[in-house]
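Worked example 2:
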Amino acid sequence: MARTSEQVRSELVDALRIDLVGPGKDHAFARELLEQSPSIWYLTGFLVPSDASAGVRTDASVGL
């Protein structure tokens, strides 16, 4: 069965989201256990609140 352009686009968006940000809480990979920090695995690193302490905003494992 041929896929529509909308289906292909949706699959591409999902693949990019997983590679850049990581899986959402309802994704099959949501409970994956990473051997390294998420900032190593996912290209965008991680998000924290702008008013978080320096200890929370940095990742010592990558020297940031």
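The radius of gyration is 15 Å. The chain has two domains: 1-32, 34-64.
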